[in-house]
């Protein structure tokens, strides 16, 4: 029975085209058909139908012409919904990139009302900012959850916005259970969110007319919110911080997804963000696994042993290096000369060593050869060179007396 009645209604529908302005002065139905397939560069593109009028008008959005015909029929639902719809003189209707057709009905409420309708396709900076905000929340959530500035500023912002919910909740406690007003407060959260949305849509007009009251409200509620946050203080428990971090990251993913108009690209960006954020863990795990596999497969090569000649040369080099370091320390200001001399048996021999003389005597080298073998060839050469030079410089009347004496204790 409904179909013949709808078929009997004759509608004059204006098919809208992009970037073309339509001027009207009567109630009119219009539709826009999207024929372009979205590309990857349309991720931040928004299609909007703008209705700008000289006086207040009521705009109703539907999916197709059949829904427009249903609006022309009288029904209880249409009657009540007409009172709930906002009456504005500048309305924006968002059109999805994948929607094939969008229709709207513009109803004028006063005579001599003129309005214009235009369809625009443009880059939306708000979508880009929403995406950037979500990106920041996701990658900086762990830092923000530990920041005191973020804690207090967020607490004040939430307090200012949520105060409308608190006021409605308190008013509902004073309402009698059988009052008709209580029916309005059923599902109070939805009604409160609707009021908040209505306030934000008309925020510019409210600020222009009632800026004194709005400023007083923001300062009062903001101070109360700051006091509550200051009383409880920032989060210190590690688990609470982790919960806040995960919440911020989840909100960031939601903002990133809602900031991109193409769903499959938005889903891909979310997956890439998740992989990038947690990439260090699988990469580190793969690196450890690779190192273990390499160690298990490669053959262990025993270290090469030194030959007797290499061992002797290395000992000579390290000994000579250690003696040079000892001479440098003895000549440095860090060495206490008097304390060092008081602890040694032969101060003159120590002084000669510091000045560059060899650290062993001929008798000490001979004793070492008798006990341990041939001894050090390099030490013998240096010792004999030093001895021969001393004999040449010495007075022949006084023979050289060699003694076995260790100058270091």
What's the SSE pattern?
A: HEEEEHHEEEHHHHHHHHHHHHHH
How large, in whole angstroms, is the Cα Rg? 46 Å
Ranges where pLDDT stays below 50 over 5 or more residues in a row are: 1-8, 394-409
What percent of residues are in strands? Answer: 5-15%
Our count of helices gives 17
Keywords:
single chain; 409 residues; alpha+beta; Jelly Rolls; 3 domains; 7-stranded mixed sheet; elongated; disordered N terminus; disordered C terminus; NEMP_fam; transmembrane helix; nucleus
Task: Tell me about this structure.
The chain is an alpha+beta fold and 409 residues long. It has 3 domains: 2-123, Jelly Rolls (Sandwich), CATH 2.60.120; 130-277, no CATH class; 308-393, no CATH class. Helices cover 59% and strands 14% of the residues. The chain contains 17 helices and 7 strands. It has helices at 2-7, 65-72, 76-84, 125-139, 141-144, 148-174, 180-184, 188-201, 203-232, 238-258, 263-277, 280-297, 308-331, 337-343, 347-355, 362-372, 377-393; strands at residues 13-16, 22-24, 28-33, 45-62, 87-95, 101-108, 115-123. Strands 1, 2, 3, 4, 5, 6 and 7 form a 7-stranded mixed beta sheet that branches. Residues 1-8 and 394-409 have low confidence and may be disordered.
């Amino acid at each position: 029975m409904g179909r013949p009645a709808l078929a009997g209604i004759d509608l004059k529908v204006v098919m809208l085209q992009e970037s073309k302005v339509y001027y009207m002065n009567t109630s009119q139905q219009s539709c826009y058909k999207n024929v372009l397939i979205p590309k990857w560069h349309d991720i931040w593109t928004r299609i909007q139908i703008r209705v700008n009028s000289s006086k207040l008008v009521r705009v109703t959005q539907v999916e197709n012409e059949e829904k427009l015909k249903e609006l022309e029929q009288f029904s209880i639902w249409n009657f009540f919904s007409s009172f709930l719809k906002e009456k504005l003189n500048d309305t924006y209707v968002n059109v999805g990139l994948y929607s094939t057709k969008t229709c709207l009905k513009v109803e004028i409420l006063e005579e001599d009302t003129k309005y214009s309708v235009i369809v625009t396709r443009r880059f939306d900076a708000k979508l880009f900012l929403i995406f950037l905000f979500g990106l920041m929340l996701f990658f900086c959530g762990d830092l923000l959850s530990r920041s005191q500035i973020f804690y207090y500023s967020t607490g004040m912002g939430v307090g200012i916005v949520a105060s409308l919910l608190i006021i409605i909740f308190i008013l509902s406690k004073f309402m009698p259970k059988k009052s008709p007003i209580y029916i309005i407060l059923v599902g109070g959260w939805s009604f409160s969110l609707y009021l908040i949305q209505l306030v934000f849509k008309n925020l510019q007009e409210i600020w222009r007319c009632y800026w004194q009251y709005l400023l007083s409200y923001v300062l009062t509620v903001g101070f109360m919110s700051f006091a509550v946050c200051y009383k409880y203080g920032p989060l210190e428990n590690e688990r609470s911080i982790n919960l806040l971090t995960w919440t911020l990251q989840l909100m960031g993913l939601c903002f990133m997804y809602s900031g991109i108009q193409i769903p499959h690209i938005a889903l891909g960006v979310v997956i890439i963000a998740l992989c990038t954020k947690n990439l260090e863990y699988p990469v580190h795990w793969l690196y450890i696994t690779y190192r273990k596999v390499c160690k298990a497969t490669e053959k262990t090569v025993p270290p090469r042993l030194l030959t007797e000649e290499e061992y002797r040369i290395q000992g000579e080099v390290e000994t000579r290096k250690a003696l040079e370091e000892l001479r440098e320390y003895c000549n440095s200001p860090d060495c206490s000369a008097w304390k060092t001399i008081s602890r040694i048996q032969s101060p003159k021999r120590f002084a000669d060593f510091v000045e560059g003389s060899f650290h062993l005597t001929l008798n000490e080298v001979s004793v070492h050869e008798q006990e341990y073998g041939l001894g050090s060839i390099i030490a013998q050469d240096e010792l004999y060179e030093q001895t021969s030079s001393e004999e040449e410089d010495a007075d022949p009347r006084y023979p050289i007396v060699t003694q076995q004496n260790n100058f270091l204790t």
